[in-house]
Amino acid sequence: MTNYTTHTMFGAHSTAGDILDGNDLTGRTAVVTGGYSGLGRATTRALAQAGARVVVPARRPDDAQRMLAGVGGVEVDELDLADLASVRTFADRFLRDHQVLDILIANAGVMACPETRVGPGWEAQFAINHLGHYALTNLLWPALTAAGTARVVSVASGRNPSWHIRWDDVHFERGYDKWEAYTQSKLANILFARHLDLLGEPHGVRAFSVSPGWILTPLQRHLAVEEMVAAGWIDADGTPTPGLFKTAEQGAATQVWAATSPDLDANGGAYCVDCRTVDGEPTDSSAAARLWALSADLTGLDLGHRPDRAGPLAPAPRARR
């Protein structure tokens, strides 16, 4: 049973628009990765409609421009989270044009893809879902700390006690399993937020991880229909199982709430579900610190320290399948 520690007027059926109804985010700047599709698009629309300036970095900027046509207050830029040189280039452009970043929502991701190697041979789900966002946060650190009070939201998934980090083979060089790789990356999102909050609180940067719930979005693009039917998500005609899925707007609610709600001022590092923080499932602080150290070693970045241009961010990514 899920135990909640915060009590709000919002819940599982609230939408991102409900969260921000009556709120004025004019003058605030947000970055939403993957902010042009599915949950990300619903998040971008809600923040922009509340007055925020939303920067949407996208691997396919033309697609993002098309998907966000008509949404005011949005700028699209180019970013490939699988390519740390691209992450650095995006961050350089952002810091040149924006002194302050109030909200960073690490929303983009990939799920259950075929075995794919990027960068110096990294497993793609860990690289894109975690390491790319880890690097992005580090590189945008000057703008986050300049905000005075900033929020970083790491979009994870429904947490399960069986999830673990494969510390001795984090890139699945010895036997790839697409679901184990996915859940490892989502646990990494939770651990990342926990340790980032510890490091960020003295600088006014608070971090949270969230589960958006069950939503049918392009995230499922690597799954065969037969697999989703066998899992009980849809029927043979592709119709979703009644009552199982939220809408994208409902799924986006928790990340928007975590990014903006004053109810969370004293709950940094928390894991959030249905617009509430979850109690009874403590995040392992030692694992969070260990993951941070591993990520710093892999990327050469650790809050404010930027390597030489010839440093760890230099390798070009391998082709993705």
Report on the structure:
The protein is of the alpha/beta class and 321 residues long. It is globular, with a radius of gyration of 18 Å. The protein starts with a strand and ends in a 22-residue tail after the last helix. Mean pLDDT is 87; it is low at 306-321. The longest helix is centred in the middle third of the chain and has 23 residues, at 178-200. It is built from eleven helices and eleven strands. The protein has helices at residues 16-20, 38-49, 61-67, 84-97, 124-139, 141-146, 178-200, 225-230, 248-251, 253-260, 285-299, and strands at residues 3-4, 29-32, 53-58, 74-78, 103-106, 117-118, 122-123, 150-155, 205-211, 271-273, 276-279. It has a nine-stranded mixed beta sheet, sandwiched between helices. Strands 6-7 form a two-stranded antiparallel ribbon.
